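User: Show me an example of a complex going from sequences to structure tokens.

Assistant: Sure. Here are the input components:
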Amino acid sequence: MKNVNIAILGLGTVGGGTYEILSKLNKKLIETRTGINFTLTKVLERDMSKLEALGIDPSCAVTDPDLITNADDVDIVVESLGGIDFPADIMEKALLNGKSVVTPNKAAVAANFERLNKAAKASGAQFRFEASVGGGIPALTAIKEALAGNRFTEVMGIVNGTTNYILTKMGEEGWSYEEALKDAQKKGFAEADPTADVEGIDAANKLSILTSLCFDEYIPPEEITREGISGVTMSDIEEARSKGGKIKLIASAKKRGAILSYSVKPTFIPNDHPLAGVSNEFNAIYVTGNAVGELMFYGKGAGALPTGSAVVGDIIAIANSL
Amino acid sequence: MKNVNIAILGLGTVGGGTYEILSKLNKKLIETRTGINFTLTKVLERDMSKLEALGIDPSCAVTDPDLITNADDVDIVVESLGGIDFPADIMEKALLNGKSVVTPNKAAVAANFERLNKAAKASGAQFRFEASVGGGIPALTAIKEALAGNRFTEVMGIVNGTTNYILTKMGEEGWSYEEALKDAQKKGFAEADPTADVEGIDAANKLSILTSLCFDEYIPPEEITREGISGVTMSDIEEARSKGGKIKLIASAKKRGAILSYSVKPTFIPNDHPLAGVSNEFNAIYVTGNAVGELMFYGKGAGALPTGSAVVGDIIAIANSL
């Protein structure tokens, strides 16, 4: 059986979920399907209790990222640290050293899209980031691969579960924005500081990535016009309902001729549009291609195992080609 | 630029749509994205007016399939003839001769799943059939590749556009089954003899393919318990509505422990289930994986360009690996 060596940077939600799927939950199934044995050789993690909780040999732990980016016994690096510049620098080093990189880190990918892809191209390593948009939903791979015969004209997404949960509860339960946000925080769908979600920053990062893939055009996330949901009132929601629709936080990009337009903003979606049925913390990506027509991908946009599923899919794709 | 030679068997709806996308509509875009030039070298087609309508050089036409399966100037064979045994025999020969095969032909794939995959394995050629289930929806590739880290527990699909159109019109317009069928035939969504669609034979073929991919277990389509929609009455539809749902023709397979159960039948779907919003001729495939949770893929299940999009995606995937 072929062996492929993995390093994981950061054993938080996604790093832990990835290890859980690959080395415990579905280890045998994945070995049978792929004929590949995956070995975790290195972990960048200071908190030894996280290794212990997952049953990872403590000797895998390192605190210096160079011991991973330069290691002979690492084929694929999973970056699940969070942050922007620090993880991007590590990913660039790994790629330049010929190690393929998988990451769910939308902020780091969106801010560094061109330099990371350039580093991958320079060494021939692969850079994959399916989990960075829509968590477990395999939309990015579909756009790049199975749909590669299409000229895309539009992409629209409900790509932030926190805001979709809040808007759903405002609409269905009649809660105020503040009540719904508090409930989302209680359930773990929103952070203590919810700014990146509710102001559309997270959605703009994801739209930057979608736009690069659909239109071969990179728009830095800070150039995307963005309006969050903190200004959405109950009367906006009532008005949408009276017009036969819902308000959703939509990240969208459209190409008409040579003109690409893009924004993140609360948007009226009529009830008969497939995106109107995407409720609570679920995400969906809706694309239109000139051959395939309208397509929608729907699923869980966050969580250890759903996001880990996308990371593992990328790992398997790389390992198959090694 | 790398050159890859294609042969198309049958210039009907899907064969014609594939040529249209690959060699006209998106030719330049595909060349830029892939760095590959695709050349149509052979066509199995007796009707020369079809070549003329598409602008294909008449010298490409052959009437003996051996001139394709044995040809030196064919890398990938697109089988879009229809039928079961005749196209399967050609595909098997092509695969055994090391030519990769792409087909949208669900009946031929479902009936010959094991022997065609065996032929591909024997020679190392690729056998891809994304277009055989859900037309342009890239669900099969996602199940086999991006979701390969999942143990699937259930797959449910609205995989036949004709019956979904009829059931939608019965529910939304109050038409009888006969009226809705007549309208579907007028609009080109149903054949003059609608048996394969309305009796669930087409859906059973697609379920056989989905079951093989999700559960690594091949069930011949004739072993799938199947009930069509010709017995669905207006009072069934009214009853579903009064219970807060709709009747949909659902192809489903479930695995509980070692037990796989499967059927095609009219099924009550509550309005808050994502499949309830799949209307008219649209298709959707809904899968549950033990890591990713619930996922749905939605789009056009038929038509020259949507189905051609899936065929072209498979062609590009094979060409990239040649």
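The lines above are the inputs; the final block is the predicted structure for all two components together. The two ends of chain A are 13 Å apart (CA to CA).
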